[in-house]
UniProtKB/TrEMBL annotation:
SUPFAM superfamilies: EF-G C-terminal domain-like (SSF54980), P-loop containing nucleoside triphosphate hydrolases (SSF52540). GTP binds at D16, H17, G18, K19, S20, T21, N133, K134, I135, D136. CDD domains: EF4_II, EF4_III, LepA, lepA_C. The lineage of its organism: Bacteria, Pseudomonadati, Pseudomonadota, Gammaproteobacteria, Oceanospirillales. It comes from Modicisalibacter ilicicola DSM 19980. This is Elongation factor 4. GO terms for cellular component: plasma membrane. Keywords: Cell membrane, GTP-binding, Hydrolase, Membrane, Nucleotide-binding, Protein biosynthesis.
Length: 597
């Protein structure tokens, strides 16, 4: 009855509520790692994750826990990312579990992301245990937050665990609750193998490594396995668990979570959501799997130096091996040359990919403003999707242009609700619902995705002193009066600066854009005229006046170090500039349209 002593669980939490800290503490309590190894938060393994303090890829850990009763339990827990861009990873992780810990910062309260993820867990029939974290903080108010959990989520939280992941307070009690209240998995080690691929990633030495949950049967090293989706057979060359380091055990049984390596060289050979069985039991049913995620925003990415094009393509290829949600295709821009149009799950995903490309592959890239995908009903009945403003077809042949609409759920303390409503209205939002839940208000809006992709999240934070939280998902396409806003630099249309904008906002945004760009484009040896145009008609213009003196003339004769510093600064700034015609345009200017609200 080994399976009765397995507990598979995830941790659901809003960013910064302490999920990673709690995970580390659990690992430590179960003796998984030494104090020294714990110094760095172990689960956030990518450099960027550690620096930004966010979790991107789900990770799993297998631990032994000796309960007060003396019985040994195998705990498998799967860490999940907290940001809205990565919520699909959350539902995947939850699928492999029987329970979830809902971690809420007792000094902050419930946030929109946690609500959304918690509902996903409940919908998947998971046992959800509320955990109030950070009770060591003087401003912690566990009773108020417990009440909030009941009011907002509808989850009984009267005797929620109260812990401090930082000091370790309450952690033993939490683990006891976990083994008591979260049910063990079902399944039989003797049945034919049925395993779900929860995640796959590419390892330079091993090829594709897959995180799997065994629902039935036993998977051993050396077994001939079959991928249900491709019907291809492979030999399982390594099988084991994460502790969190990868540890070969040679065997995984029903109910367990671990990894399998089978000499697969392409991530599409072991797609996430696929079912693995043995080659000798080909009739085993496929598990439901997951919805395929589609990119929501697209941007052009161009190497600053044309010589880097090949290196850039190789880097994208490598990154895509690890990240099945990343899509790209070659793009040729008149202004920026050869590059790629890359699809992302959201703007955070985009920032992270850009950062990884620059850091891990040492590339200097220029990124255009992200756009959403538009649906075009052509007059010949064809439906087209366009995610590049400069690739819009002749509008005379377009019957209707439709934009993606999201359903957004916003949680905000009462005192800021007026600000948030005003912001949503300004962004063409339609209010669907407003509910008072404890000290917070839950607003439900339909908003054009393009408005959310812009700086909406940052704006929400700044108009609510950081308290508002947001969750959203695509709903449908809806007809809208949209136009293309073109930008001309010294009379030349710059394709990479074009944007698709609602007609009622186009003039205002055009004016704001040329003003913003005037601030961002450095002065050059000649006047630079910036114009915004709609359908060939100029709606706004501004001019960057010519530079008269040599920049270094500002430095006094002998001060060499200052002069040097200034030149270095100029050089660093130049890295992310692109010569468009005779004019040097910095990266910020390409993103200026995002900041014109
Ligand atoms: P995550 O984004 O949910 O993974 O959150 P982290 O585990 O990275 O924690 C976010 C911040 O909260 C970090 O600075 C932690 O040190 C801090 N933190 C986490 N748990 C506690 C706690 O119980 N008490 C206090 N005072 N701080 C905590
Ligand atoms: Mg974390």
């Amino acid at each position: 009855d080994r399976i009765k002593h397995i507990r598979n669980f995830s941790i659901i939490a809003h960013i910064d509520h302490g999920k990673s800290t709690l995970a580390d503490r659990i690992i430590q309590l179960c003796g998984g790692l030494t104090e020294r190894e714990l110094k760095e938060q172990v689960l956030d393994s990518m450099d960027i994750e550690r620096e930004r303090g966010i979790t991107i890829k789900a990770q799993s850990v297998t631990l032994d826990y000796r309960a007060e009763s003396g019985e040994i339990y195998q705990l498998n827990f799967i860490d999940t990312p907290g940001h809205v861009d990565f919520s699909y990873e959350v539902s995947r992780s939850l699928y492999a579990c029987e329970g979830a810990l809902l971690v809420v910062d007792a000094a902050q309260g419930v946030e929109a992301q946690s609500v959304a993820n918690c509902y996903t867990a409940i919908a998947q029939n998971l046992e959800v245990l509320p955990v109030l974290n950070k009770i060591d903080l003087p401003q912690a108010d566990p009773d108020r937050v417990a009440q909030e959990i009941e009011e907002i989520i509808g989850l009984d939280a009267v005797d929620a665990c109260q812990v401090s992941a930082k000091t370790g307070l309450g952690m033993e009690a939490l683990l006891e609750r976990l083994v008591r209240d979260i049910p063990g998995p079902r399944g039989s080690a003797e049945a034919p193998l049925q395993a779900l691929i929860v995640d796959s990633w590419f390892d330079n030495y091993l090829g594709v490594v897959s995180l799997v949950r065994i629902f039935d049967g036993t998977l051993k090293k050396g077994d001939k396995i079959r991928m249900k989706s491709t019907q291809r057979d492979w030999e399982a060359t390594e099988v084991g668990i994460f502790t969190p380091k990868r540890r070969p055990t040679g065997i995984l049984r029903a109910g367990e979570v671990g990894f399998v390596v089978a000499g697969i060289k392409d991530i599409h050979g072991a797609p996430v959501g696929d079912t693995i069985t043995h080659a000798k039991t080909p009739d085993v049913e496929r598990l439901p799997g997951f919805q395929k995620v589609k990119p929501q925003v697209y941007a052009g990415m161009f190497p600053v130096s044309a010589d880097d094009y090949e290196a850039f393509r190789d880097a994208l290829e490598k990154l895509a091996l690890n990240d099945a949600s990343l899509e790209y295709e070659p793009e040729n821009s008149d202004a920026l040359g050869f590059g790629f149009r890359v699809g992302f799950l959201g703007t955070l995903h985009m920032e992270i990919i850009q950062e990884r490309l620059e850091r891990e592959y040492d590339l200097d890239l220029l990124t255009t403003a992200p756009t959403v995908v538009y649906e075009l009903a052509m007059d010949d009945g064809e439906i087209r999707y366009v995610a590049n403003p400069s690739k819009l077809p002749d509008m005379a042949n377009v019957d209707e242009m439709r934009e993606p609409i999201v359903r957004a759920s916003i949680l905000v303390p009462q005192e800021f609700v007026g600000n948030v409503i005003a912001e949503c209205e300004q962004r063409r939002g339609t209010q669907l619902d407003m509910q008072f839940l404890g000290s917070q208000i839950q607003l439900t809006y339909e908003l054009p995705m393009s408005e959310v992709v812009m700086d909406f999240f940052d704006r929400l934070k700044s108009i609510s002193r950081g308290y508002a939280s947001l969750d959203y998902g695509f709903e449908r396409f809806e007809a809208a009066k949209l136009v293309r806003l073109d930008v001309l630099i010294n009379g030349d249309k710059v394709d990479a600066l074009a944007a698709i904008i609602h007609r009622d906002h186009a003039h205002g945004r055009g004016r704001a854009l040329v003003e913003k760009m005037k601030e961002l484009i450095p002065r050059q040896m000649f006047d630079v005229a910036i114009q915004a145009a709609i359908g060939g008609q100029v709606v706004a213009r501004s001019t960057v006046k010519a530079l008269r003196k040599n920049v270094t003339a500002k430095c006094y004769g002998g001060d060499v170090t200052r002069k040097k510093k200034l030149l270095e600064k100029q050089k660093a700034g130049k890295k992310r500039m692109k010569q468009v015609g005779r004019v040097e345009i910095p990266q910020d200017a390409f993103l200026a349209v995002l900041k014109t609200n």
